Amino acid sequence: MSMAAEPHTPHSDASAELHVASLVVHALPARLDQVAAAIVALPGAEVHGRAASGKLVVTIEAASSAGMMTVVQAIQQTDAVLSATLVYQCVDTLESMNEELCDDRAS
């Protein structure tokens, strides 16, 4: 089950960007619940999975690279976080992200 903070509010113009990243966060196992709660309190951050060993699967959405880095740095500096490793990062315009794609196989 996904835990999420309030969704970010991207710009409304067509040239606005959406930055998406995923991380694996390793935390002290005894503090995993507190770390997960701290992460979902950050804007645009969600926790999608967890392991008793102290690992969390996290995604972040932000309207800018600066906003993305602010959230990543906040996670890295969270008490009981041992590491936060970037797994995936993508940036595209909102217009492109919202473009409807045709499925040619449907015919």
Feature tags:
107 residues, alpha+beta, Alpha-Beta Plaits, five-stranded antiparallel sheet, 3 helices, 5 strands, 23% helix, 38% strand, elongated, disordered N terminus
Q: Quickly name the level 1 CATH class of the domain at 29-93.
A: Alpha Beta
Mind summarizing the main beta sheet?
Answer: 5 strands, antiparallel
Structural class: alpha+beta
The CATH topology name of the domain at 29-93 reads Alpha-Beta Plaits
Silhouette: elongated
Q: Mind explaining what this structure looks like?
A:
- By secondary structure, the protein is α+β, with helices and mostly antiparallel strands.
- The protein has a domain at about 30-95: Alpha-Beta Plaits (2-Layer Sandwich).
- The chain is built from 3 helices and 5 strands.
- It has helices spanning about 30-40, 65-75, 95; strands spanning about 5, 15-25, 45-50, 55-60, 80-95.
- A 5-stranded antiparallel beta sheet has the order 1-3-4-2-5.
- The longest helix is centred in the middle third of the chain and has 12 residues, at about 65-75.
- It is elongated.
- The relative contact order is 0.28.
- Residues about 1-10 have low confidence and may be disordered.
Write the layout of secondary structure elements.
Layout: E1 3-4, E2 17-27, H1 32-40, E3 45-51, E4 55-62, H2 65-76, E5 81-93, H3 94-97
